[in-house]
Each structure stands twice: as structure tokens, then as C-alpha cells.
Write a structure and sequence with these properties.
This protein is of the alpha+beta class. It has two domains: 3-91, Ubiquitin Ligase Nedd4, Chain: W, CATH 2.20.70.10; 124-382, Arfaptin homology (AH) domain/BAR domain (Substrate Binding Domain Of Dnak, Chain:A, Domain 2). Helix content is 60%, strand content 6%. It is elongated and about 125 Å long. One of its GO terms (biological process) is clathrin-dependent endocytosis.
């Protein structure tokens, strides 16, 4: 039986380097060697080895030329250090998905893997993850800002409805006063069977007065409903803006750490190349220092990426929670307006004897109000992006 056919020692696995060379890794200690381990568990055939404290990247633990027992010790040391240097460069390959305005999105290959959070609804939490240019300027606005603008427009519409009703009240009151004055003209009172007979005059005046009262009952709820709505929306805006600023800061820190790591790896590579040319104890010491700095830079990068992912996760959670809350508030506001207008039209049918035909179209429109359908139409037209962010990976 050839040595390659013998079973490996316990906890050891065989891998193939990019150059087609076999090498062996201890799955417990992450120890790596070019020599096949002996039958004694946990020990390779030769002491020539190097340690690797980071798991595999892209299926490989390192690369380089194999180590041979017959080579001189200084050549062996050189090649070992070179192998470690190359391994370090391989291990810190960073996988950055698509990043737009500090938000990390999946690459096109993985986009189809995402499912909507609420697939049976046109929910705000699914369609406003991306940013877009402000149509009224050159600035960039977030998807959440688009939702906030819609809510503020809804609040403005509610205010305008209240102002319209108030103006109608003023007109109706003026009309009632004029009717009252006109009915007191002596000639009008004396005219038999005319427009201003007492019974008819009283009915008209009472009808107008009732309409004024009804309109007052509609105007007041429209005015007082969520008086602090604008302030509440500002709180939403400031909170989400702060989270995005923190995310941008963490993204910049990752980029800075990535560049620092690249510099450390380049420095380590240069020192290793010098060692290949001339063996020198000072160069060996410099390589050890450079390797420590490279490892530290790698740890810093991992820490920055972890902090970035924490910030993005927090922003993601707040985006979902806040957009669903805006959705709920919108449905509540629409339902409040619909109920008050339905109450108004019902009582108007009972009190206004002269304008029944003008109320019927309003009744029909109110019966067809559907917040979910309105939201679907609006989302189809204004959505910014349904692709959700993902973690940044190393």
C-alpha cells in the first residue's frame, strides 16, 4: 500500500493547493503542513510546519511550493516564511457585495434568493430600501423620506379638507343670515303663497342651520386629529437619519481598515521578497513584526465589519418597524376621514331637502374607499427598490 493510500491520522484532512500540490490541515489546531501526517494522531512526519489561525478562504488554506526534508535549513525557513506571507494575503480576501450610499446589497447572482417580507400585500416595508434623486433637485433622498413625504401630504390634505369645510360653514352662515334678513321685509311677509311664506321660510332657515351644524361637527375632528402629527414625523425622520449617518460612518471605517490591511500586507510581501534574496536576522525580525501588524490590521477590519453589520441590522429593523407604523397610521387616518364624511352625508340626507342629488355621488365615492388598493397604486408608481440589504462579509 502506498503512503497516499494509508488513512490519515485523526483530525487531519488533505487539500489540494491551486498549483495542484497536496497539503494537510489539522481541523482542531488549524496546523498546516506540506508533509503527510504520521499515524501518530496530531503530528506530521516532519517538524516543518506553519500555523494558520484563520479558517479557509475560497476553499484553500494557503499556497506556495512544498517543503522537503532534504533542503538546507535556511532554504526551508525562507520558503516557510514565504508560504505564511502568501497565506496571509489569501486569507484576507474581502467579499464586498454591492454597496450604494453606505448600504450593502446582494450581488446580482443572489438577488433572486430574496423573498418579500409581506408577499401578499403591497406593504411599505418591502419597496423602499433604495435611495433616489429628489425630483425637485439634485439631492439624494432615502426611501423612508419618500414615505414620510407621502404622510405629510396626507396630513396637508386633511388640513385643507378642514379649511374647505370651514369656508363652507362661513358661506352657509352668511346665507342663513341673509335669508333671515330677507324674510323680515314687510312686502315679503305680506305676499301670500310666495317664496317667503312663514312655513317655507322656516324650513329653509332650519335646513341651512342644520347643515352649518353638521359641517362644524366634521371640521373639528379634521382639525384636532393628530395635532402633533408633523412633530411625530420629524422624530421619525431624525431617528432614521441618525441611523443612516452612523451606517455611513461605520462604512467609512471599514474602508479605512481595508486600506490599512492592504498596506500591511504589501509591506509584509516586500520584506518577504527581501528575505528570498538575502537571509538576514534583521529582515527575519522585520517580517515577524510586519506579520503581527498585518494580523492586527486584519483583526481591526473584522471588528469594523462587525460594527458595520450591527449598525445596518439596527437600521434594517427600524426601517421595517417604522414603515409598518406609517402604514398603520395612514389606514387609521383614512378611516377616520371616511367615517366622519359618511356620518356627514347620512345626516345631510336627513336635513338638507334641497341638495339631495349632490350628496349621492359623494356617498358612492366614500363606499369605494380602499386604503390597501390606494397603497398598491401609489407603491407601484413611487417605489424606490425592493432589494433588501445584506451583511458585509469577509
Amino acid at each position: 500500500m502506498s503512503p497516499l493510500d494509508e488513512p490519515l491520522a485523526r483530525d487531519w484532512k488533505c487539500y489540494m493547493s491551486p498549483q495542484g500540490r497536496r497539503y494537510y490541515v489539522n481541523t482542531v489546531s488549524n496546523e498546516t503542513t506540506w508533509e503527510r501526517p504520521s499515524s501518530t494522531p496530531g503530528t506530521p512526519k516532519t517538524p516543518a510546519k506553519h500555523k494558520n489561525s484563520v479558517p479557509t478562504v475560497n476553499g484553500f488554506h494557503g499556497n506556495g511550493s512544498p517543503l522537503h526534508q532534504t533542503e538546507p535549513s535556511h532554504v526551508l525557513m525562507r520558503k516557510t516564511m514565504l508560504s505564511v506571507s502568501r497565506s496571509s494575503r489569501c486569507l484576507w480576501m474581502i467579499s464586498f457585495p454591492l454597496q450604494i450610499n453606505s448600504v450593502t446589497f446582494p450581488l446580482p447572482l443572489h438577488m433572486s434568493e430574496q423573498q418579500l417580507l409581506k408577499p401578499d400585500e403591497w406593504s411599505y416595508c418591502d419597496y423602499f430600501w433604495a435611495d433616489r434623486k429628489d425630483p425637485q433637485g439634485s439631492t439624494i433622498i432615502s426611501g423612508f423620506e419618500v414615505l414620510l413625504q407621502k404622510q405629510l401630504k396626507g396630513r396637508q390634505m386633511q388640513k385643507e379638507m378642514a379649511e374647505f369645510v370651514r369656508e363652507r360653514i362661513r358661506i352657509e352662515e352668511e346665507y342663513a343670515k341673509n335669508l333671515s334678513k330677507l324674510s323680515q321685509i314687510p312686502l315679503a311677509v305680506q305676499e301670500e303663497g310666495g317664496f317667503f311664506t312663514f312655513g317655507f321660510r322656516f324650513c329653509v332657515y332650519r335646513s341651512v342651520s342644520d347643515v352649518v351644524q353638521l359641517q362644524s361637527e366634521v371640521e373639528k375632528p379634521l382639525l384636532i386629529f393628530r395635532e402633533n402629527f408633523k412633530k411625530d414625523m420629524k422624530k421619525f425622520d431624525h431617528h432614521m437619519s441618525d441611523l443612516r449617518k452612523q451606517l455611513a460612518s461605520r462604512s467609512a471605517a471599514v474602508e479605512k481598515a481595508r486600506k490599512a490591511l492592504a498596506d500591511r500586507q504589501k509591506d509584509l510581501e516586500l520584506k518577504t521578497q527581501h528575505l528570498e534574496i538575502k537571509l538576514n536576522s534583521k529582515i527575519e525580525e522585520d517580517i515577524k513584526k510586519a506579520r503581527r501588524k498585518s494580523t492586527q490590521a486584519g483583526d481591526d477590519l473584522m471588528r469594523c465589519v462587525d460594527l458595520y453589520n450591527q449598525s445596518q441590522s439596527k437600521w434594517f429593523e427600524e426601517m421595517v418597524t417604522s414603515s409598518l407604523e406609517l402604514e398603520r397610521l395612514e389606514v387609521e387616518r383614512v378611516e377616520m376621514i371616511r367615517q366622519h364624511l359618511c356620518q356627514y352625508t347620512t345626516l345631510r340626507h336627513e336635513t338638507d331637502m334641497f341638495n339631495q342629488s349632490t350628496i349621492e355621488p359623494l356617498d358612492k365615492l366614500l363606499r369605494s374607499v380602499d386604503p390597501a388598493r390606494d397603497r398598491e397604486l401609489w407603491v407601484r408608481e413611487h417605489k424606490t427598490g425592493e432589494l433588501r440589504p445584506v451583511d458585509m462579509d469577509i
